[in-house]
Amino acid sequence: MSILGFFTVLFLIVCAVILAEMYREQHSFCVTHYEVHSPKITCTAEKDSVNRIIFLSDMHNHVYGKQNNKLFEAIKAEQPDLILIGGDMLVAKNDVRYQEALDFVSRLPQLCPVYYASGNHEQRIKENQENYSLCYEEYRKKLQAEGVRFLENESCDILLGNQHIHISGLELPLIVNKKFRKADVTVEDVRRCLGEKHTTGNQEKQQETTENFADNSYYILLAHNPSYMEAYKEWGSDLILSGHLHGGCVRLPGIGGVITPQAFLFPKYSGEMTVEGEQTIIVSKGLGTHTFNVRLFNPAEVIAITLCR
Fold first, then answer.
1. What is the distance between the alpha carbons of residues 98 and 220, in angstroms, rounded to a whole number?
2. What is the CA radius of gyration of the chain?
């Protein structure tokens, strides 16, 4: 065989391996475990009362097994105390449908409390009724009837065991997700949506939570797009959960994600846990894709978080 023939065969083998891996990653998921430490947490990793949180994002109507049973059983096996959803569970397109997302998310309250913050796809469907009619309202009402709590520029206080937790769901204007541009989002934009950190949400910005919660709560912010992390950090949550970037589509060792949905290269936060001072940032690689259906060295994931001192 000539040198040219050898390298041609080698190239074809490499291409075949890459395509096979891309196919595998499009049709499977993993459970990624993170241990998050904070002096605010009342239990340790060794105690039975440890707090377990499942974080889901960017499913985009993807289905793993019949009725998403594989995904549901994987979550059930983690024995979660709380499930948080970071948005984009469905896809906003002309022939919008939500049945896959509805069927799956509606089962989750069987396991534990579920809180849902919108992504840009839910928001687009909600804000463009001329294109999508009342699809989002129907979707939300059906999930609320099953016990899912939506946080649309709102916050709530919960007691998880003996742990006070304050959860906020941020919904920035849709324009911040526009392709080929990055908006100038500041902490003031976050405050306009959510109020100050210790308030209960957009409709009650001046109403302080109880002093007990304000002093002792562990603060979690669900903010779909991680491109504006500096503003989120300044707002002041202990744990920031994002998604949106699908892990950067292709991940490179030592570098991370390659490209964002807004067509920016090598985002700082794309699919990992980062600890910065007393704040923890977790960005999900997501559970599905849309439009640009590529995953390479970038498996879809369920994130399982253990909160401990």
1. 27
2. 20
* 260, 248 Cβ separation under 8 angstroms: yes
284, 55 contact by CB (below 8 A):
yes
CA 247 – CA 3 distance, rounded (Å) = 37
Backbone angles phi, psi at 126, to 5 degrees: -65, -40
- Residue corresponding to tokens 């069927």: 103
Q: Provide the CATH number for the domain formed by 3-308 in this structure.
A: 3.60.21.10
What pLDDT does residue 45 have?
A: 55
- Domain positions in the chain: 3-308
Rounded Cα distance, 58 and 91, in Å: 9
Mean pLDDT of 176-187: 89
User: Cβ atoms within 10 A of the Cβ of 282, count?
Assistant: 25
- The pTM score is 0.92
CB-based contact 32:304 (threshold 8 Å): yes
Any idea which of 87-101, 211-225, 229-243 has the lowest mean pLDDT?
A: 211-225
Q: Rounded to an integer, what distance in angstroms lies between the CA atom of residue 80 and that of residue 9? A: 48
Q: Distances in Å between the alpha carbon of 9 and those of 3, 5, 14, 18?
A: 10, 6, 9, 14
Interstrand relation of 251-252 and 163-170 (parallel, antiparallel or unpaired) = unpaired
Mean pLDDT confidence for 30-52: 81
pLDDT at 205: 39
Q: Please report the pLDDT score of residue 291 as a whole number.
A: 79
Note the pLDDT of residue 198: 60
State the Cα–Cα distance between residues 126 and 131, nearest whole angstrom: 10
Q: Angle formed by the axes of helices 135-145 and 120-127, to 10°?
A: 120
